[in-house]
């Protein structure tokens, strides 16, 4: 597996991503998302810092731009990245925040499965705080 170092920002910081492993059964976008999560966890990309555009990451990793965009959407949904059209991609969260958002999504899905409404779920959460 090769290691690639696309530029993170003009201050010469580096984001080290391991190339995708096409023999791994894990979806390529999940591998990319995991690598970016690892970079954030390891402090290679901190909140407020820019990361390369999707097309640049795709070229370096040897995957389709849509695959990278899918990974970036996953990380955006986890609260780790801010992704805008034609704008820079910025790190907005920490691994801990991403983990919390994932757990909250699981909780909301479970509540919906059992028929709980938004207000009921909020009331339950209030009793725990």
Tell me what you see in this structure.
By secondary structure, this protein is mostly helical. Strand 4 and strand 5 form a beta hairpin. Helix 1 (28-41) packs across helix 3 (65-77) and helix 2 (54-61) crosses helix 3. The protein has helices at residues 28-41, 54-61, 65-77, 95-113, 118-128, and strands at 3-4, 17-18, 50-51, 81-82, 89-91. Helices cover 50% and strands 9% of the residues.
Computed over alpha carbons, the radius of gyration is 17 Å
**Helical coverage, percent range:** 40-55%
How does CATH name the architecture of the largest domain? Orthogonal Bundle
Oligomer: single chain
Number of strands: 5
User: CATH homologous superfamily of the largest domain - what is it?
Assistant: Winged helix-like DNA-binding domain superfamily/Winged helix DNA-binding domain
Indicate how many domains the architecture comprises: 2
Gross morphology is elongated
Task: Give the CATH topology of the largest domain.
Answer: Arc Repressor Mutant, subunit A
According to CATH, what is the class of the largest domain? Mainly Alpha
SSE string, helices as H and strands as E: EEHEHHEEHH
Order of adjacent strands in the largest pleated sheet: 3-5-4
Mean pLDDT: 83
Distance, first to last CA: 46 Å
Number of helices: 5
Major sheet summary line? 3 strands, antiparallel
